[in-house]
Amino acid sequence: MNAKRLSERMSPRTIERLAVYRRVLAGLLGQGLEHIYSHQLAELIGLTSAQVRRDIMTIGYVATSKKGYDVGELLEKIDGILSPKEATHIALVGVGNLGRAILSYFNHQHSALRIVAAFDADENRVDRVIAGCRCHPMKDMEGKIREENIEVGIITVPDWSAQEVADALVAAGVKGILNFAPVPVRVPDYVYVDRIDITTAIEKIVYFISEGDKAGGE
Asked: Is this model's pTM higher than 0.90 or not?
């Protein structure tokens, strides 16, 4: 089964775990490690060895009984599934503090995924290069997205404008959206959306550590 068919049948959680495996395996390969067992990989990532084995069997790779997984081969197999054959062009909308941080970090991490254009409504930010990426006015979004063949949009705007931005991205032809705004956005079924709500994530952490403190005091 080819990489595209494999990726179509995998759940989002499996894809997330494969991405983590890839980062860990790349680091291990850089340290000179050639083989690793499922329980060792699981311990490094914080999963069970059974989960690791299930995920890796899903992509059609099998360990040898004596040496475990070949790190280089497994990394290559995961790369074949997760890495696009050509560079994927990305647009970021909203060049505030979070947007700037993403621009500063992202393009140095993955050569196949590139933020090629940024957009903002603030005239003090447009027509400038910010963290290595040119920022354009919102009115130019549709034309620029089509010109640059941009397939993915990142939303880092306030909640009150997130839906409007999502609508504009969809109208321009993007196929996927990563939404950092603290509200969900509605899109057609053919557009894939993932949402990262930093505040909610922190609130969840605070809840569980406070519950742990309560349990410890009982």
From this structure: no
